[in-house]
Amino acid sequence: MNNIKLSGVIKSSASSNIALVKYWGKKGLQIPENPSVSLSLCQSQSITEVAWEIKEDRTSALEIEFYFEAQENIEFKQRVIKYFETIASLHAIPHHLKLKIKSHNTFPHSSGIASSASFMASLALMVRHLDALINDLPTSGPEFSQAVSRLARIGSGSACRSVYGPICLWGQLDGWRESSDEYAVPVQNYHDIFSDYRDTILIVDSTPKKISSPQGHQLMHEHPFKEKRYIQARENCKKLLDAIIMGDLATFVRIVESEALMLHGLMMTGTKPYILVKPNTLAIIDKIVRFREKTQIPVAFTLDAGPNLHLLYPNHFHEEVLAYIKRELVQFLENQNFIEDRVNAHPTTLEYI
Length: 353
Ligand code: PMV
Hints:
Layout: E1 7-21, E2 26-27, E3 31-32, E4 36-54, E5 63-68, E6 71-72, H1 74-89, E7 97-105, H2 115-134, H3 142-155, E8 167-170, E9 184-186, E10 198-202, H4 213-220, H5 226-246, H6 249-268, H7 279-295, E11 300-303, E12 309-313, H8 318-329, E13 338-342, E14 348-352
Helix pairs in contact: 2-3, 5-6
The protein binds (3R)-3-hydroxy-3-methyl-5-(phosphonooxy)pentanoic acid.
């Protein structure tokens, strides 16, 4: 007797992640030009619920209703439909499905938290789970997670890193046998200090950025320094992973900050240069470097493709760093706004409603 299901409601969630070594430049279906390393977060999540039904007529087309934060969002819906068409053409999901998808984020838009990573990872988990239910396949285990990461990558490259935590490697890297361009892998033997690392996200400016990530990746094709950058990113991944395993925080801080500045340096030195950081981003960087020198607290800043900063530091310095943010940094923030987050070993969840 088989257990094949015909309809149901499932809810998936995935957290965002912040890159330490940046993925910037891609080919084909989100195949990265260089490997990247990331921390998966805890509080910054996308939650996606789907009511699904298999249509009797196997020749019928996929039907999708999509609501983001309780609103019909046409732009977002088109992206979701395109994603489903792509994965259906790869036989990752049947066509004869009717889906009503509702998604929301636990964090504000344009806050420096990659919402496409958490959303696409939550969608990929839901898709893979659905396919497993329909075809009576296992709904957990290493192969299942790897398939989720692969599907998430097809939605948005960095999303593949939101499947594992607290630390992920995505992209083929010499010396890391299990690494792949197709999916992320968890970094297993990290030093204990990283098991509860903090990320406090400082909101400098939440207006939507002028150049999107897809446009930024595209511009890397014609970047005069691209070959050197891809070599450097590989070297940085190796050095950073060694530092993560050894608990070498001085190297961790140095590489993480140089990667953040490199990402923005690449934006400023391409064939169509652009600047996403703001004067207050630089004011905070200057203060953080001085705070670190004075206190010897190993707090590192990093940046995504935008002006907001992520401050990364060991949990046992939380009180001192928080007091410093409240005393010295909030004046540089939009509405004095910051988000307290931390790393997460299990960034995805799934439940039946
Ligand atoms: O996953 P995408 O296509 O949104 O690209 C993400 C690029 C960066 O966030 C800037 C870097 C990274 O590795 O996450």
